[in-house]
Amino acid sequence: MAEQEKGRRKYRAVCGVLFSPYLSLVSRLVLGGVFLYAGASKVFDPGGLAASIRSYGLGLPEWFVTLSAYALPPFEVLLGLYLLVGLFTRASAWTTNGLMILFIVALAQGALRGLEIDCGCFGSASGDEASSLWVDLARDLGLLALGLQLAFAPPGKFSLDARLRRNRT
Amino acid sequence: MARSTQTKPGKGSRGDAEGPSGGNRTIVFLLVGITALAVLGIVAFAVLSAAGGEDAGNFTPNDEGLLPVGSEAPSFTAETVEGGEVSVGDGSAGATMLVFFATWCPHCNNEAPIISDLEGRYEDLRVVMIGIDDEDDPEKVQEFVERYDIAGPAVYQPSLGSTYQVSGYPTTYVLDGNDTVVAAHSGEAPSSVYEGWIEEALGSG
Questions:
Q1: Residue A154 is nearest to which of B14, B39, B167, comparing CB atoms?
Q2: CA torsion A72→A73→A75→A79, rounded to 10°?
Q3: Which of A8, A48, B84, B183 could be bridged to B174 by S-S, CB 3.0 to 4.6 A?
Q4: Chain B, nearest residue to A71 by Cα
C-alpha cells in the first residue's frame, strides 16, 4: 500500500514537472526560436535550400524540391512565431513534430549512408563545410522531445492561448 | 456562474480544455482565419514557383553570390594539366561549360559522368574542368578527368575560384558564344537542367 502511494507520488511529481508552465515556456522559446531562425536564414535563398535538399540524394522530383525550397522557410517562420507567442500551441507543436520527424528520417538515412553534406538546416550561414549529420540528428531528436512536451502538456499560463482561454466570471 | 464549473475536473487541470469565451471566441476565429490565409498564401506561392516540371526554366539554381546571369564572364588563359593552353573570353566556342570542382568532393564525382555525357552529345559545347582546391594538384585533376572520360581541357588554377566567386563544389557556369553567363549554379543538378542551359547558350551564341 505504502509502495503504491510512493509510486503515485513519484508519478505525480514527474507529471508536475512535465506539465509545468515553466517547462512549456522554455520548450516554446527554444523550439520557436530555432524554427524562426532556421526559416529566416533560408527564406531569401530558395536556391541554396533546393541544393541542400538535392544533396541528400533522395531522388526527389525537381518540382517537389522547388516546392519545398519555397514553402518550407516561410512555414518555419510562421510556426516559430506561433510557438514563441504561444498561439495555437498544440497545433503548432504537432505540425513542428511532423516536420521534425521528416527531417530526422532524412538525416538518419544520410548519416547511415555516410553522406558528407551540410544538413542545410540553417541555410548558407552554416557554410560550405560538411556538418556531422549524427550531431544534427541528435539536435533534432532533442527538439522533437520539446515538441512532444508542448503537444501533450497544456500551453501554460505564459502563452497567448491561455490569455484567449481565460474565462469571464 | 463561471463556465469553468462545467468542465470535467481532470481536464480543467490541463489548462486548455476550456474553450475561449465571449469576445475571445471572435478573436480566435479571426486568428484562425488569418492563419489559414497565411498557410494558403505560402502554399500558393510555392506551387506557382514550382509549377511546370523540371526543365531549366523551372529549376531553382543555387546562385547566391555567383556571377549574375547576363554578365560577361571574366576572361582568362590558363595552362591545361596536359601542358596545352585554354582561353575563355575570346569567343572561340559555341558554348562553354566551366566546372569548378575538387577531386575529393562527392557531388563532383556524382556529377562527372553527367558532364562527360553532355560533352559527348553537344558538338559545339566546350567543357572546361577547373580544379581550384588547395588539396588538389594538376596530377589529381588529370587523373579525375581521365577517370570520368572528360575530354575537354582541364586546368588547375586556384586563383580562378575567387575570380568566378566560387564558394562551393561543384560550381558550374554555362556561357554562350559571346561569353555571357547563361546559367550559374552551385551543387548538383539534373542532366535535363544542364541540357536546357546548354541549348539556351548554343541558341543565343
A1: B14
A2: 130
A3: B183
A4: B46
Element (H, E) at B189: none
| ipTM given for this complex | 0.78
φ and ψ at residue B65, rounded to 5 degrees: 85, -5
Chains A and B form CB pairs within 8 A to the count of 117
Angle formed at CA A162 by CA A156 and CA A165, multiple of 5 degrees = 145
Q: Do B16 and A61 touch (CB under 8 A)?
A: no
Instruction: Establish if B9 touches chain A: CB-CB under 8 angstroms.
Output: no
Tens digit of each residue's pLDDT (9 = 90 or more) over A43-67: 988 888 988 888 887 888 878 888 8
Chain B residue numbers touching A168 (CB-CB < 8 A): 2-3, 21-22
DSSP assignments along B5-68, one per residue: GGS-HHHHTTSSSSPP-THHHHHHHHHHHHHHHHHHHHHHHHHHHHTT-SSGGG-----TTSPP
The strand pairing partners of B100, in sequence order, are B130, B171
Whole-angstrom CA distances from A145 to A142, B139, B203 are 5, 50, 54
Angstrom distance (rounded) from CA B143 to CA B140: 5
pTM surpassing 0.80?
A: no
Distance CA B185, CA B141 (A): 21
Q: What is the pLDDT of residues B114-157, one digit of tens each?
A: 999 999 999 999 999 999 999 999 999 999 999 999 999 999 99
Of B31, B42, B186, which is closest to A75 when you measure between CB atoms?
A: B42
